[in-house]
Specification:
Length: about 300
Amino acid sequence: MNRPKWIPLLLYSLVFPLVHYKELKKVDIIKTNQISGTLEAFYCSLFFYKPLYSRSGYIRSSNPSYFNLSFFSKLLIYVEEFIACKFSRTISVSSRYAISHLSKKYNIPKKKFLLLYNFVDPIFFSKAFRKKNSNKKKINVCFVGRLVTSKQPLLLLKIIEDFNNVTLHILGDGPLLHQLKKESLKIKNKIFFYKKIDNKKVSKFMKNKDILLLPTLEEGNSKVILEAMSSGLIILTNDISCNKELIKNRYNGFLVKNNNIELYKKHMRYLIENSKYRCKLSLRAFLFAKKMFTRKNFLKLELRQYTNAVKF
């Protein structure tokens, strides 16, 4: 449903049920895919007396950047999360950490939540993964994401600067792009920058990469990590709550505590010097993603949520 151009954005939320009256009257469930936007969904739920089903992957109140927001922004986040938790018939979230956080913050029984991990497009499993060459002399490292402070892209340069046989590929855009390009001129490694591409082309981008380097401070059930694992990439990332649900340290990737740059370098050096181990981790990452994060598994659980939403 698209907003008619003649309706101002601020007014659109209020008149949404009237503008789309014919379509919304026919539905059985009002659903959100992110908690952001819950106010409009809740409004429609009341207007048409339909059950509300909330789904979210990224819980903004649980991340460090939340504390730097304005009072109004924090209030809006609180109101949307409160409504989603209190007034939804059922709620699905993409991490165990999200269940714990929302349950405690808004005093909601954990049984109201369903853990529904993200899924990976089958194109990654079918085209991106190839058995890694154990004799490679050049290692391709990549970063995929927004170039913002919370993702810490500037740390990428510090981590790889000691390795002459590492090439860094950065896919993303954001306010730190200019500074990142400027700083990259100071180190010897080959660094390539890529503008944002269509999601369907990400599998092609990852096809010849070996490692995903993601020194992020906040993450939900990371789609990037899942896609990288399904492409056989080894993940090096920070030891934060949601990442620990995907990465088993030294088994299918590496978790780095306390943002430790030297530890990142240590893991990188070990992977470069131990090619057979690198191939073993790559295969484990691929098999883990293929077992856990297929579209079939996702749809099965999603159908259960629709059933829960209309039981009352």
